[in-house]
Amino acid sequence: MDFSQVGDFFTNFTSKLERGITGMFGSSNERRVAKIGFVREKDGSSRIAPGSVVDQINRLEPEYERLTDDELRQSSAKFRARLEKGETLDDILPEAFAAVRESGKRHLKMRHYDVQLVGGYVLHKGMIAEMVTGEGKTLVATLPAYLNALSGKVHCVTVNDYLARRDMEWMGPTHIGLGLTVGAIQSNMAPRERQAQYACDITYGTNNEFGFDYLRDNMKPTKELQSQGPLNFALIDEIDNILIDEARTPLIISGPAHDDLTKYKKANDIVLKLKRDVHFEVKEKEHTCHLTDDGIRHAEQLAGVESFYTAGNMHWPHLLDNSLKAHFLYKNDVTYVVEGGKVVIIDEFTGRKMDGRQWSDGLHQAVEAKEGVTIKQESQTLATITLQNYFKLYKKLGGMTGTAMTEADEFLKIYGLDVLNIPTNRPMKRINEQDLIYRSQREKWDAVVEEVRKVHETGRPVLVGTVSIESSELLSRKLKKFGIQHNLLNAKFHEREAEIVAQAGRHNAVTISTNMAGRGTDIVLGGNPEHMAWDVLGKKYASRLDVPKAVWDEATEEISVKEGMKAEGKLVASLGGLHVVGTERHDSRRIDLQLRGRSGRQGDPGSSRFFVSLEDDLMRIFMGEWVKNLLGTLGMQDGEAIESGMVTRQLEKAQKKREEHHFEVRKHLLEYDEVMDEQRKRVYSQRQRILDGANCRNLVIDMIDEQIVHWVEHFLDPMYRWNTIAAWAQQEMRLELEPHSFRDMGKAQLVEYLQYEARRQGEEQIEERLEENLPEDDEEENWNWISLSKWINSTYDLNTNDRELRKVGRPDLQNYLYKRACESLDRCDMSPISSLIDEEWGSISLSSWLHQQFTLSIDPREFSRKETADVVTLIRSRIANFYREKEIQFPVAVGLTRFMANEQGAGERYDREGLARWANGRFATDLEIEDFRSTSRNEIEQTLLQRSERFLARGDAVQEIDERLEAAFGLRNGADPESELVTDPGQLPAIVEWANGQFKATLSTDNFESTNRDSARQLILKAYDARFRPELHQAEEAVILEILDTAWKEHLYFMDHLRQGVSLMSYAQKDPKVEYRREGMKAFGDMWARVGQQVTATIFRLENQSPEFVGSLWEISAVTHATEVLLPQQSVPASPGSPDAAYEPEPSQTATAVEPIRNRGPRVGRNDPCPCGSGKKHKKCCGQA
Question: CA 444 to CA 641: how far, in whole Å?
């Protein structure tokens, strides 16, 4: 019994039943649309449901028509005021949509249709609006974009730079007329330009640019250099292309990796010597290539290695698989082109060239080796994220496309996005004819040419969709033979894509393009004057935003009249409209629907037909060669076609199976990326907290505390010394011992035990190695003497070789090796046992660790006979005092490094006057410059330490912070800190007055009204740091970020290699994905521990290890405290991380050293008459300052 046929029967039955029920009661989609307000009757007419959202917007239209332009421009301010008072976006939606509609009428001469209002509502609700091509998706997007921009930033996402710029310039006047700002991100923009564009209320850009800017921002050293800001609402055009087709595309910022590029050429040479179906298999359906067992052995011989699965050779299978894919699955002029000696990838869905993109995991290098071009250095990942995980970071998503229903399940499962089909403004008139199926591609192409000739003769425009450059150029050559004029569009003519597609609806036009080329460009019957108008106006204006609407309308109207486009459009419509010819069924039904959707826009007439051959990829995979042979046996003639609705439905089933397969592939790959996504979120959120002003002192203290608790428990564990002895024995004597087996032994007994165990285990290991490398039941020619000699040398520090072992012979070899091993063990130095067995070994190790990690000295005897908790408390107290001393000493070290540095070869470079002025400002003191002139460096240092200690003590009021905050926020109740908001606003003025008075801050009650307790605490601590410890705060932040960034890059490099090698786990009957997650999370935990250790160790050694960095920090305190002392007018260098610090002089500019400003006039003594003429002493007059 064929169960697949039974399944098909039930599928067909349920489909017919569903259609019957839908015909009687209407679809779920229609009912949901009707609830919003738009109802389409069975006769094609439409009505608006009374009281619905659409009805409310329509009723407001006369009211907004009466507003002046200035009054309309004030709408945004009024809406935002209502939101601040507690209203929601849903509350103001009808008025906001009505305002957008009115602005569109005034500035674009375009009025939103009722169905477009429905689309805007769906997008605002965080759903996907499926809208037929030509229904005005770009205009629809203005509705939710404006509404959501009232409460946060909105990102409008397009598929390329051209559309981002076009949509911004086209729709921008609508938003500007309502008082909002609009920007667009372009790939060639500098960081400052990006900051300006992201500062706008609504920003247009491509998915790649938004994703890369997210990664770049998470590599910036300061918040001031970041561009993108919070991810609030993303409105995605062609959402199926971005979130389905490119969902698994990793955005990667990379740097060069140390790699041997010759290995790709070697792998390519080996593959050329292998035979298909003998040495390797190609599975087109799964898009994979694999070596057979015979192929592995043959390839090992060609590579000159003993085995691919021994250490040092495991990269070969991956290299050869990639090289096989390059030769048999990746084809020139189909998946890539070679231009200028480079391999340029072609997007499989749009046919566009993707300059700068490359395949990962060495596949790109394999293709370059195949083509014989220069092989690029394989890169190391510095930052990466997939598009799926990037867009899941947004608080809300909405999207538009012409084809989303076929992927509705995936959108819902992965993104939580529902899909709603939006009715067309006018009923659809396009005729979709049955597919024509031929036996061979030759017959199919002949039929396509005949179809084009036949339709072309009527004067109707024809758009032919192909799947590759190769196919489009083949068809172009055939049409030229018949003298048919046509436009050819593929990746080689990418620059004119929108222009060519825009004119595809003209009378007698024939256009050949890849299936999705020109996506986002309307094909208007009779021609589209937009591009032709810009060709003229672009010579005068910098962008479309600069073109006055009247000038634009006049230019488009003039071109339309001159070219006769309106009359031509009516003629084309009367002939039947645009005819679309598909030359192959795509794996995805969406792509076919996109091609069909080019015809029949906005109620225009049109038609479409697909031509298929049994040699096409989809047909060959699912039908096989036997179907073609069967049809020939049954008498199917050359050129004869099959035209059947049943066959078309079977094709759609095959497409659905391919879609399910692709979904599983995407899920499989994204399951790997979920591991990285969890880690990325933790690293980037911690990083952003620091840039947003998190208290770095607390972070460092927390790191110190975690290490103290961990290492105190580790060192004071009763088993620690015995574990240490076991580890020492393993390293020095190659012993595998359980510490419990020798616990509580004395030194003499322990030494004797270790020596005995070393001989016993050595004898067993030698016997095992002999059996492994020289098995007596195997042929002698297969014995591995070299491996045995390497093992005995590395294990027992010997210097033997395979020739020497061969002379001894197999029968006597065990005794010989055992004797040599015993001689080596006798030479082992056992003296460290005396220290390791000491009862105080744990305390000594803890004391040593504290000094090594924090430069803190504590006598080990202080830990004796104390409980672990008491030792932790003792160390915490000492560390707290030690860090307090650090806070006192660090600013002094900064000042001395800057003003009293010793330069090698230049002697002393002392600036005592500058140091005194800086210290007076930094410590709010009154040091005399004369007191520094004849004072030694050590005496100056002691003076500054005293002033620093007194000044820091003035900041101890910060300890009152929690008590002060309780007055406004109440007692902590154990709830989520982010939910603890102000409970008594009347207490805020007192808190602000206290903070501003104590820390010279400029806070206001507005800073606290809408914030939570923890954020309020961070604000006050930030003010405290700026006042009392600016240098150490900056050092803490810089050190944490530098070490975290470096550790994260190293972790990404490790994860790259783990991903490449984890598949070998399957040979050990382990799930590679489970092992990848386990190993990845373990490595991530180790990374965090390493970050904490490196940060704390660095903080306590900054003055000694990085004097130049420490010296540069004086600028921060000079700026922070500049208002407290009368300093000469001088130019202060940009602080590290400020926007000005991020830009180097241009190559053509000459950097000029800035001369410090000094008073060069005659010096006036304190007791001299004041130069101002007052008659007073200088110190009692102008010198008082």
Answer: 9
- Give me the percent of the chain exceeding a pLDDT of 70: 82
First and final CA of the chain: distance in angstroms? 104
CB 416 within 8 A of CB 408: no
pLDDT number for residue 105: 92
Of 289, 286, 275, whose CA–CA distance to 322 is shortest?
289
Distance of CA 121 to the CA centre of its chain: 30
Q: Smallest Cα–Cα separation from 1185: which of 928, 944, 914?
A: 928
Q: Are 598 and 568 in contact (CB under 8 A)?
A: no
* pLDDT value at 751 more than 50: yes
- Burial class, 478, CB count within 10 angstroms (exposed 0-12 / middle 13-18 / buried 19+): middle
User: Which H or E run contains 184?
Assistant: strand 182-184
Nearest of 738, 654, 347, 666 to residue 516 by alpha carbon: 347
Half-sphere exposure of 790 (CA within 13 A, CB side): 5
Q: Report the C-alpha gap between 802 and 784 in whole angstroms.
A: 9
Dist CA 239 CA 256 (whole Å): 33
Across 23-96, the runs of DSSP E, i.e. the strands, are 38-40, 46-48
Output the CA torsion sign for 576, 582, 588, 594: negative
Is the separation of the CB atoms in 603 and 538 below 8 Å? no
Backbone angles phi, psi at 130, to 5 degrees: -85, 115
> CA-CA distance, 219 to 222, in Å (whole number)?
9
**Helix or strand run (H / E) with residue 1140:** none
DSSP structure string for 582-602: ESS--SSHHHHHHHHTTSSGG
Q: In terms of Cα–Cα distance, which of 561, 570, 505, 504 is closest to 533? A: 561
Query: What single-letter DSSP state applies at residue 415?
Result: I
pLDDT of residue 933: 78
Q: If you average pLDDT over residues 155-160, what whole number do you get?
A: 91
Spatial neighbors of 800 by CB under 8 A, at least 6 apart, are: 789, 792, 793, 820
Exposure of 859 by Cβ count < 10 A (0-12 exposed, 13-18 middle, 19+ buried)?
A: exposed
Burial of 181 (0-12, 13-18, 19+ CB in 10 A): middle
Please check whether residue 386 is in contact with residue 250, taking contact to mean a CB–CB distance below 8 angstroms.
yes
pLDDT in tens, 497-511: 667 777 888 889 999
Closest CA to 727 of 833, 821, 820, 828: 833
Q: Do the Cβ atoms of 252 and 384 come closer than 8 Å?
A: yes
Phi and psi dihedrals of 255, rounded to 5? -130, 165
Contact indicator for 54, 38 with CB cutoff of 8 Å: yes
Alpha helices in 576-695 (DSSP H): 589-596, 617-622, 625-633, 645-691
Closest by CA position to 194, among listed 155, 158, 162, 167: 155
Which of the residue ranges 807-811, 884-888, 1018-1022, 1065-1069 would you say has the lowest mean pLDDT?
1065-1069
**Helix, strand or coil, per DSSP, at residue 869:** helix
Confidence category of residue 758, pLDDT binned at 50, 70, 90: very high
The DSSP H or E segment spanning 641 is: none
Q: pLDDT confidence of 132, banded at 50, 70, 90?
A: confident
The tokens of 1090 are what?
């390493």
Of the pLDDT bands very low, low, confident and very high (cuts 50, 70, 90), residue 440 is confident
pTM, to two decimals: 0.70
CA distance 1080 to 446: 55
* Three-state SS letters, 753-777: HHHHHHHHHHHHHHHHHHHHHCCCC
Question: Residue 1130: CB partners within 8 Å, gap ≥ 6?
Answer: 1156, 1157
Q: How many CA atoms lie within 13 A of 748 on its CB side?
A: 0
